[in-house]
Each structure stands twice: as C-alpha cells, then as structure tokens.
Fold:
Amino acid sequence: MKLGEKQKLLVIKKVDFGIYLAEKEDDETRVLLPAKQVPEGIRLGEELEVFLYKDSKDRLIATTNEPKLMLGGLCVLPVLEVGKIGAFLDWGLEKDLFLPYKEMTRKVEKGDEVLATLYIDKSRRLCASMKDLYDLLQKDSPYKEGDIVEGRVYEFSDNFGTFIAVDDKYSAMIPSFEDCTHLRIGDVIEARVTKVKPDGKLDLTLRDKAYIQMDADAQKVMEVIEEYAGVLPFNDKASPEVIKREMQMSKNAFKRAVGRLYKERKIEITERSIRKV
Structure:
C-alpha cells in the first residue's frame, strides 16, 4: 500500500465502524476506511479509490476525502498552529499536516500561507517541507516575454538569484544582479517576464522597462555619488560584481543611467571615477 498517494483497493471486510480494504482479497495487510466515509451500497469485492495517511495514533488509515497535497505534489497551505517542534498545516483531511522546523526555509506564524511539498520521514509519517521545491515546479507556463505575472518567493541563492513560483506552480527566477534584499520567503510579488528559456523556465524582473526605469536608476546613481562625497571611485567600466555590490543593479542598467547623467551634464567620467559636476 502506498502511503501519501491515492490508490484503488478492494473491499474485503465490513464492520460496524467501517470497512477494511486491501490490495488483494487474501492480503493480510489491511487498512480501515471509517464508517462515516463508506459509500452507500458498497459491496465486498468492489474497488474503491482512497488516499492513505496515518491518524493521530500513527495508524495507517484510508479516506475518500481529497487531500490538498499528495506525494510529489506542491501546494500552498495555511498555517493553523505553531508549536515547539514545528507547525501544523491545513491539508483538507481530518488530521492536520505537520511541518517540522528543520523543513522550514523561514519561521512561519499562524495565518501564514506556505508553499510546501509532502514527504515521508524516517518514522514513516507524512510531513510537509518548504525545501527542495525547484524540481517540482512546472516548466510549461503560458507566459511570454513582457507579460506581467504573480509569483511567490520560495528560495534565495547568492549565485543564481531569487527563485519564484509563478502562480505557485511555474519555475521562474529573478537574476542575482537585481536587488531583492527587501523580499522574504513567502512574499507574493508582481514581476515582468524578461525571458522564456529553452527549457520553459522564466526569467523575471521587478524593474520597469529600460526607458521607464532609467530615471529611477539615474537618481540612485547620483545618490550614491553624493554618499562618496561627489566622487565615485569607479566608472562604467567597472566589473559587474562591483556595480551590483554598490548599486544593486546590472552593469547595463548602470551604464544607461550614467549615460543619462552624462548627457544632462550632471557628471563627468574619468579613467577611474565618476565625478559630480
């Protein structure tokens, strides 16, 4: 029998408190479907599709109810309670789903909504996890370059960027050169698709189109120059890493902003610096 999955089992015995199900008629491994969920008119030998989980006493039990989350799936679930060793999520069954602290990517609070998957722990119990979601996201989104999408932040990577689940199911990322320090795990954002990769994954940006964003970038560059007492100790030939660290923008965006300020005669560019005029 497959814990955490829907499957068809045979009705092999009826009792006052429900029916027992098994994979085969002579199978000694049986699971109870409580009486309140037994379909009217069900007969011995008939097949019934159920979901298997464990009850509060850690006993295998069947249900005909539809869980919000099954093994290999991905779903947004509300946090019902937070205890000493983890949180409890509503997944649509009689028993709440346990989310251990070690499987959280951030501390959750009652009333939060978390993007989670389902796994079987070492004690053969079903638990939720906020980790390792990347491979579970779909890569066949209907979106194209320029579309505005809504997504949920689920992971940060210093090397790659900020990982987003668009519509809570499609794989997307904001590249690392964009400033996402104001975001946290679980935030729902609006972003623009900048690229659809060959494998279907989406690149996103929180920034406006270049001609709209340029004014804001130019203002930010001037603010940083003033923080350096009017002389920025590098110019638009600096490495992308330096520009990202100091400006929280890409090198291309920085060069566009510097070009705008130069044309407006607000700065002068030397071999090693940018000076406020």
Notes: The mean pLDDT is 91. The first helix runs from residue 210 to 227. The domain at 75-129 is CATH 2.40.50.140 (OB fold (Dihydrolipoamide Acetyltransferase, E2P)).
